[in-house]
Amino acid sequence: MKDHRDDEDPDRPDRWLISYADLITLLFALFVVLYAYSQVNEGKYKALSESLGEAFGRSGGGLLPATGRVVGNQPGPTALDPDSVRRIEMRRRTLQGLRDALRTMTDAGSVRIEETPDGIVIDFLDNALFDPGVATPTSNAKVSLAAAARLVAATDYAVTLEGHTDTTPISTRTYASNWELSAARAAAVARLFEEQGVPGDRMVAEGFGSNRPVADNDNPEGRARNRRVVAILRDPKGAPLTPPAK
Q1: Fewest CB within a 10 Å sphere: which of 11, 49, 68, 163?
Q2: In this predicted model, what pLDDT tens digit does every residue of 218-227 receive, in sequence order?
Q3: What is the residue range of 48's domain?
């Protein structure tokens, strides 16, 4: 008859199977939890987190993070607060209103409007606003600029107005160089915005002359692109970019 004590022999080579079986069982349980976590349901997720916390003796909530999935040590996405949602909607309305107000210019290719991480950027070619060598907006330009300014006045956006020229020298009684011309054009747009209700303390007007080209000054097309006034509208609260329309 076999002695039952043989089964308890500590030197038996197959005793590792017991530990191996325990490891496989634990891994199976882990994968079940991970699968359930990947098919996240808010109610089940909370219950699972609390159950794990109780099982491991942890008080004050569960072991899983409060929101979203976890990738490495990074927290999951959080919902936008109501103020951010409101400001995103304000930016969306402002952006659409500007596109409507300046549609004639944008259709003609003389104005570009885009939303960037820096804010809403309105890029006016100089021929959309001014006659050559002057810093007084044309009558047609004043109508469009006034409509855009009223939209900006309804927000609390900070406004930076930049004047730019090409490298063609200018020297007149009024403007001794491109510096003066670019600064005067930016200031003229700022003054018009202020007349339409945009507070002066929210605006900055800057003249860069020919020092920040966006195209090649060696050809007429590039020089025309470089002669421009840029309006940058920045949200002081730093609201996220407008989500794309669904």
Answers
A1: 11
A2: 999 999 999 9
A3: 14-78
